[in-house]
Amino acid sequence: MTRTANLSMALSDEQAMILDNAREFCRSKSDITAVRSLLKSATGFNSEVWQEMIELGWTGMVIPEKHGGSEMGIGSAIPVIENMGRYFLCTPFISSTIAAEAIIRGGSESQQSRWLPAVAQGSIGTMALLDNEDWGATDTDCILLQDQNDFILQGKKFLVADAEVADFFIVLAKQSDSLVLVIVEASQIPASAIEKKTLVDETKRAASVDFSGIKISRSAVLAEGAKILPDIRLIGALLIAAEATGCAAAALDTIVDYLTTRQQFGRLIGSYQSLKHPTVDVLIQMDSARSFIYHAATLIDQDALDRDTEIACRMSKAQAAEALSFAGDRAVQFHGGMGFTYECDAMLYIRRAQWALHQYGDPQHHRKCLAGLLLD
Amino acid sequence: MSNNINQELNSNVEDAEQSDFRKGVVDWIKHNNPKDPGFLLPQTFMEVGSEQVLDFLREWQYKVWSSGYLGMAWPREYGGQGMSRQFQQIADEEMKKARVPICFNVIGLGWAGPLIIDTGSDFEKQTYLKGILTGDDIWCQGFSEPNHGSDLGSIQTRAERDGDEYMINGSKIWTTMGNFAKYMILLARTDSQVDRRYNGLSFFLAPMRVPGVTTSPIQKLTGDYGFTETFFTDARIPANCLMGEEGHGWRIAMQTLQYERGAEAGAAGGVSILSTVMNDLLRIAKDVQRDGKPLMRDSVTRDNLVKFLIEEHALHLSESRLKIPALCSDYPNSIALSGKLRGTEFYRRMRQYALTLQGASGSLYVGDSDAVEGGFWQRAYLNNFSTTIGGGTSQIQANIVGEHVLGLPKD
What is the residue extent of each domain of chain A? Predict the structure, then answer.
């Protein structure tokens, strides 16, 4: 049985400023020509823009002050990521922010001093969680074996975001019967172990990574990996939701632009209710997604995420991914013949939706978890 | 268990005086909430279809008022108590939570009353306000006309000045409690020569019990009565029934609609609708069997219920986001203008689903002894169309959002 929900939402002056700055930055650095020029590139992002983001302090936003960051909390990353989504500004920011959160929440003092200042200065981290397509898996075939005083990893991970540019990986593995998170440095992995995947969303990069045979020292096993894993998954879901929400807003703008300029049968096509009303539905879905992500952003700066925050993160992901999927789908359809071409920007949204839907759990996965939280 | 989300938000900031007051309300309800009258109580004021129901509700509203829980923020000299609105809100929250009967004189309590308090003359305040609270004077609304639906600018009912009187001719439709009402807030055309059609309208606080006013009941989709069509044939009303000045009717009507939409404070309070929230839906789902197992274990049902819960959360969160302009910069009017469309359509689908949940019992209706909760949900679903049709249909609302929020061209 459900009980009364927490519905708080707040935006600090600091967050409001970040929102404005991020929007202006992403708008100026990532126009559609820039986005398209990166589609076939190796890394998928412009390293100069990434460098500027580092210099603006964004990579240190979630890092504690004592480790060289500004300690603004993960909630402050939401406006940045929403705007990255809005302008398809792709960098490893999301991957690296989630990895940083894993170390902040689950790392020992020495692990934090080793990695967090580096992340603040632009080192790229990423999570390697999946064995296969199953986001709901509670187990892994990636094994951490004892090797004298150290360990050896055996196993392969699927769909690791930004794997080719990552400086370190946080890998979900199993040590006897317990789940652990271990840090693997890129220098430990032979190039042949990274197999690039072909994605629907050409703005994103991901690979399968074979971690078999890599030596892991005790100091590379996160102190509290198993304990923080559920929270990291929720944070991941929220960040993907924020990016999807921004992208859905952009898809809506693209639809509205076309509906207010394209004429057919002597009328602007936006005057037809068969196009107008579904476009209003896109607006409503996007509006809901935005309400959820800022609600979740309001709650999420906690040491351990509570039930209300879990609900907020899962609803954010379910709503935002559905909203973008619907917006992208209608964007293609409403552009008519143009919508079927690669030249039309609608393809960017519908393709991004196929990334956003499946990162950190699809909407149905989250609804299933919500059912347990709200109905039992 | 708490049924109302807004209530929880408000209670977070409650001081000692307010929480003492809340305890008093809860206690009062415990001793005064009427027993089951043996008939299904109206969900809204649009279902007062018989004298029996009317008498019951009139007695209840009088009791709420005379016990000090209605019109608390209205001025003392007109039957109120001159207290802070927060106390009325607390009383309303607790009454809503306890699912007490509605305070039925909704047009008076929520529309005419606040309008008279805000803009009325001393004479109008003296004449009308107290009777609204006690339930002695029932009010109805005369805006919509046959064949004009949502388009108030096309109003044809005429009011012609003749000495100390106006003579009214025309007809109004969807007059809730028109057959019981003593007064109507009436929008009529006093000048048909003006260039802009809105300028010729005037607003009246019109008596219903004068020669030339007749009503004819309309049976609704639900089978209940509660609406009438109202006919004016050379009906003469005193000239001092005109509110404000001639030709200002449109502006006053728009202000009145603001009270309806809750955008302006001032309503007398009281429960005006037996609302249904997701917790109510989950309550009925809990006791239902499907495939020999509790329905709540069915994974398809669970997914559907969570979808509704997400939507309900989103509706409430929109209200929170509306208060943070920086998070509404894309389309600043979006949440405000889409609220009716989103809310009424959500409840329509949610109530429709409530019948699905009931299995074979979904086909039972009010009056059947086996109907789930007396057929409340069946009636609630059918009645919900009054909200997706009345006050601008969902289709008109979608046009408004498309045109005024997104800037899409008119059709």
Answer: 13-123, 127-224, 226-375
The answer to whether B278 contacts A3, with C-beta atoms less than 8 Å apart, is no
Q: What is the least distance, in Å, from the CA of B341 to any CA of chain A?
A: 10
Nearest to B52 by CA among B225, B286, B178: B225
User: Fold for domain B5-105+114-134?
Assistant: Butyryl-Coa Dehydrogenase, subunit A; domain 1 (1.10.540)
Distance, in Å, from the CA atom of A97 to the CA atom of A94, rounded to the nearest integer, reads 5
Q: Which amino acid is at B343?
A: G
- Specify which residues B189 forms β-bridges with: B158, B201
Considering just the CA atoms, what is the radius of gyration of chain B in Å? Answer: 22
The rounded distance, in Å, linking the Cα atoms of B322 and B317 is: 9
Q: Between B85-97 and B16-32, two packed helices, what is the crossing angle to 10 degrees?
A: 40
pLDDT at position A370 over 70? yes
| Binary contact (A273, B398; C-beta < 8 A) | yes
Binary contact (B305, A10; C-beta < 8 A):
no
Looking at the partner chain, which of B282, B318, B402 has a beta carbon nearest the beta carbon of A279?
A: B402
Chain A touched by B316 (CB under 8 Å): yes
Instruction: Read off the pLDDT of residues A171-216 as tens digits, 9 standing for 90 and up.
Output: 999 999 999 999 999 999 999 999 999 999 999 999 999 999 999 9
Q: What is the pTM of this model?
A: 0.88
Assigned CATH class of B139-260: mainly beta
Nearest to B324 among A9, A256, A367 (CB): A9
3-state secondary structure (DSSP) of residue B365: coil
| CATH number for the domain running over B278-405 | 1.20.140.10
Does the domain made of A127-224 have the CATH classification 2.40.110.10?
yes
Whether the CB of B286 is below 8 Å from some CB of chain A: the reply is yes
Instruction: Say yes or no: domain A13-123 is CATH 3.90.1150.30.
Output: no
